[in-house]
Design a protein that fits this description.
2 copies of one chain form a homodimer. By secondary structure, chain A is an alpha+beta fold. In chain A, 40% of the residues lie in helices and 21% in strands. Chain A is built from 17 helices and 14 strands. Chains A, B: Pfam families: Peptidase_M16, Peptidase_M16_C.
Chain lengths: 468, 468
């Protein structure tokens, strides 16, 4: 089912690597009985300036989704300028060399499309959707905002104020407070310690010059991936892309020197005092994995069993059996570098430490006993059934395809997705648990009315008491 | 393009009205140049017990989306039991005659599907998605939760507590506070006055008996519509539906006697005091339209011009020109009965009344001068381009199709959607403005630190001062 065609299309002076395949299509042998996934034609190319291109045909509707991913995220924020990558992304749509914010909005609205930019820890994405017949217009606009923003002083001040307001508003949000303290403790001076949106101090310190420089350093074709998914004919599209992005000059990619992540020994417990709370917010965890970890599928299945959804161990124990909380969830945030593994829940102040102890017990039980065959089977069954539901729209497909490229996952990652899930054995999961899950060395954050729970919290270990 | 086939399929003892058509497909004449919308095969039927059925073929992925809409919403809540319809909906998944909450979750997870229930003002929807090969299983489950919930006392208490907590949490949310007061003033003793989720007093007063009775009164086949969209073959699906829902007993549909909506004369201004606020939340409006109002398209286009998105009059004036707010938005919530028309924005306390005055001025200008041809063209252009982007997934299609049926829109509503938009003239919009928009008689809600703005607010008229 997999044909690889290599060649040079001199007409476009492109180095072209074309990988056309129909994946997961009607192959009962490799698919077992879980139904057919749609065939998807997929093609890769690279412009001379280093821009990686992925094109996917998806013909159900006359629409197209575009994503330009730039390897520039909050991990590239200087220590004193937290929020830099985010404010750069937010400013892209505010004005370019030839269009102001209103003109950009008018052009998008005129074709009934969408265009937005968002930055995360490791990257920034500019995404757009439109009818196929407006492909050239929307691509032009996307190129314009990504490559030629002007960063006017008044737009910077507006965006800075807006972001500061968002951060201040988080003071009312228990969960956001817990996350912020958790990341800070887990990552220390590593930039994963601060949220992508930035910090009050960081945002206030950012200058226009630094914004311009950040854009110049990171928004480079050889630091970016462009994906187009939709009702397209790849060779036509490629010509348009070449015309639009061919003159984008490559440059030196700035890789930051990152500090080490701290080592957590025993429990590091922090109690954040918010005296108006009657419910305690709890966040517990340790370092997790890189996105390209070979145990990714094992840990995804493990996480399902431990704390994803209403059939998980944690939910059954804490919500169903004991009624201590309305919700409990575990999660791996897999990033370019090691993202966090964490469990979040909440309970009344009176039962907060009891709930926390139950979570710790579940982690210990998992570490000591591993998982059962039945648990693994039902986790697999969930993902096998659910996978196609996550690939319904061109924008969803674009995001999955770009994920594969960005994290350096195998070329056949999506093609073999279901096979990979099925191949995971109980031993694989238990080995992954053995290597990663560590119930003895944890960051524990409690956001609560301190006087309600401090004494009981101290039975677990030393408690660092903090204000908001 | 439209074939109507009528007949009786005695094999299923169904009264079948089959309407098969390929809509918006390749019809350049009626479509102009805005691209082809996918062809969609669409079929209607009705079971003997009165259940309306709509089936849509959508073959891109091997998935299926199901929506069962029951005409039972918070508009059916008794005055003293606000939140009844919602708690009934929330309890459906908590346990049935043969399955407890955990078993239901396990079954859904086992097939990797989704199943949820949500209630709004006029209706409750139970929605599900799954792979097509699990259609029978997910339909069985959907039928089980919709028809045979047991409403155990412990589940009721859990759900009641959870909902009360959500309502209490709204106290931190300025926008939710403004909405609540706005609806209360606009609708008086009409049930649209309270949010679907209910009120603290209402929720506390609800008994198990009332929950059971509400379900019995409203969850009836002759009060419901079932829509299935996906990679299906209608006649097979119809047989399965008949087997699953054929024994659902019809009953008398309980239509509530609803009080009249109050008449608002002049400005009715309410200032809600929240002393910690530095930003004032503003909500202004009056009664809007029923969903089946023949001027729906005119008003949709008008709303775009007035306050939808970054090119609208309000946004340009308040955000772009004056920098008084980060956001401003106008909206029509079109319901079975007249929903609200409202404008929402916020500004620093010092500039709140100035911002409010600008909004009022824009409404007056609109009423006096109407819209321009250029504004209308760009609004049309937006919706023409955007429509296909709102029909990407089976679940989106199901929701549009059920909307058409539920609100009694014309049979060719979706088919003629783009044509209808294009047919709207400047005169149509201006006539709709003349008939509906009323800048002299408005509900105005301000949520703010009262002492900061009270004096200035009084320059607009009498101000009712309220606590949270």
């Amino acid at each position: 089912m997999l044909n690889i065609i290599k060649g040079h299309l001199h007409r476009y002076t492109l180095i072209i690597i074309m990988i056309l395949f129909t994946f997961l299509a009607n192959d009962k042998h490799s698919m077992g009985d879980e139904g057919n996934i749609i065939p998807m034609k997929y093609q890769k190319a690279k412009l001379d300036n280093g821009l990686s291109i992925i094109l996917v045909e998806h013909h159900e509707l006359p629409v197209v989704a575009i994503e330009l991913l730039v390897r520039a995220g909050s991990v590239h924020d200087p220590q004193e300028k937290q929020g830099l990558a985010n404010i750069v992304a937010q400013l892209l749509r505010e004005g370019t060399r030839s269009k102001d914010s209103l003109e950009i909005s008018e052009e998008i609205d005129f074709i009934g499309g969408t265009l937005s930019a968002d930055s995360e820890y490791d990257s920034t994405s500019v995404t757009a959707t439109a009818l196929v017949k407006h492909f050239k217009s929307i691509l032009d606009l996307l190129s314009e905002v990504a490559r030629f923003p002007t960063f006017k002083t008044k737009d910077i001040e507006f965006q800075r104020e807006k972001t500061l307001t968002s951060i201040l508003r988080e003071k009312d949000n228990k969960r956001a407070i817990a996350s912020r303290h958790f990341s800070e403790m887990l990552y220390g001076i590593h930039p994963y310690a601060h949220p992508s949106i930035g910090t009050l101090e960081g945002l206030k310190a950012i200058t226009r010059k630094e914004i311009i420089q950040f854009h110049k350093n990171h928004y480079l074709p050889n630091n970016s991936i462009l994906t187009v998914v939709g009702d397209i004919e790849p060779s036509n599209i490629l010509a348009v892309i070449k015309k639009t992005f061919g003159d984008w000059k490559e440059g030196n990619v700035h890789k930051p020197t990152l500090p080490l992540m701290p080592k957590i020994v025993n429990y590091r417990i922090r109690l954040v005092d918010k005296p108006d709370l009657t419910q305690t917010e709890i966040c517990i965890g340790h370092l997790g994995i890189r996105r390209n970890n070979p145990d990714y599928f094992s840990l995804m299945l493990l996480n399902y069993i431990l704390g994803r959804g209403p059939t998980s161990r944690l939910y059954t124990e804490i919500r169903v059996e004991r009624g201590l909380s309305y919700g409990v969830k575990s999660q791996f945030d897999a990033r370019i570098l090691r993202g966090p593994f964490y469990i979040r829940t909440y309970s009344k102040n009176e039962t907060a430490i009891e709930t926390l102890r139950l979570v710790l017990d579940e982690l210990k039980k998992l570490k000591a006993g591993g998982i059962t065959k039945e648990e693994l089977d039902s986790a697999k069954s969930y993902y096998i059934g659910h996978f196609p539901l996550s690939l319904e729209t061109p924008a969803q497909i674009a995001s999955k395809i770009i994920e594969q490229e960005f994290y350096g996952l195998p070329e056949d990652y999506l093609e073999k997705y279901l096979e990979n899930i099925k191949a995971v054995s109980r031993e694989d999961v238990n080995r992954a648990i053995e290597g990663l899950i560590d119930p003895e060395n944890l960051v524990i954050v409690l956001v609560s009315k301190a006087e309600d729970i401090l004494k009981e919290a101290k039975t677990l270990g030393e408690v660092e008491l903090k204000g908001l």
